[in-house]
Amino acid sequence: MPCPVEALDDFAFIREMRPETRKRLSSKVTLTALPPAASVLRLGDVVDGVYLIRSGGIRVYYLDADGREGTLYWIEAGQSCILALNSLFTEIPYPAWAEAEADGVEILTVPGPLFRELFAGEPAAQRFLFEQLSERVFELQKLLERTMRLPQEQRLILLLLAHADADGTVRLSQEKLARHLGTIREVVARLLRHLASQGLVATAPRRILLLDRRRLMKIAAAEDETAFPLWPAGPRCSTAPGQVRAPLND
């Protein structure tokens, strides 16, 4: 569907562009809404535009030789997919998979030829691309360091801390946690049982409750939730340190 002007205004770099450029964008950019888990891009796809996330989020992931998923990064509102940007400018196929997150996603698509033209003459477009690139390279470097340095239990704890809501509830299944970490569900189940035996978490189908956030952060050697920046940081858990909550019910 055509993109309303107010949707373009959600992006600071577009607001900085010249009026005539913004007018061209309003007639060329399309707005697409996708439901949760919908495929956005697949390995080998030809990228023919720049995808700007207006709301919701996208998970970008890979598949290993055994078919197990591993999350590379998330794309949130106001961001774009740096792998897709690279594919657009280098004309190489998309090297990963991308799917809509739990709340679905709204995507503004700028046609590839138009964005290349903007990049050649609009400083705001140039800044946006370089900011996206620098942020993502830094985050991927951190992910690589943690993957090589941290045991799986610490990586799981960091993921749980980042996804916990205000009540300390993580609304992800063990299968999905395993996909994010590039492992299998049985490994995640074993790690969660170990954490539960220490009074740190309680588990239920598709939910995990963090019982002692401070101890979890200490185990993960993390100062705060931002220690795992590739996952959107959730609100702080309202459970007081050391407070034990009843196990979750179905």
TrEMBL record:
Keywords: DNA-binding, Transcription, Transcription regulation. SUPFAM superfamilies: cAMP-binding domain-like, Winged helix' DNA-binding domain. Gene3D superfamilies: Jelly Rolls, Winged helix-like DNA-binding domain superfamily/Winged helix DNA-binding domain. InterPro entries: cNMP-bd_dom, cNMP-bd_dom_sf, Env_Response_Regulators, HTH_CRP, RmlC-like_jellyroll, WH-like_DNA-bd_sf, WH_DNA-bd_sf. It comes from the Bacteria. GO terms for molecular function: DNA binding; DNA-binding transcription factor activity. Pfam families: cNMP_binding (PF00027), HTH_Crp_2 (PF13545). GO terms for cellular component: cytosol. Transmembrane segments: none annotated. Residues 13-136 form the Cyclic nucleotide-binding domain. Residues 150-214 form the HTH crp-type domain. This is CRP/FNR family transcriptional regulator. It comes from Ciceribacter lividus.
